[in-house]
Amino acid sequence: MMIVYASLGVAIVCFILYALDRRSKSEPIAWEQAAKLSSLGGIITGGVVFATTATDLTETVTEAVKEMVPAAEEMFVGVPTF
Length: 82
Hints:
Blueprint: H1 2-24, H2 31-53, H3 57-75
């Protein structure tokens, strides 16, 4: 649930900062731009929170890499021919 709260919080803060910036310049709010900035801020925050709070992420990554290593080693066996 922390991912959702953090993402929504950052999205709201992004929107408020964008609205304050536009208001200080006496320009109207471009709603498409505001939506893009808010959603991008929320998505990035969700990814960061997920990556930093995942407990079994290191085990999952380690297993995936162990499976890929033999395939990568096979690519570099032998003498290159040009």
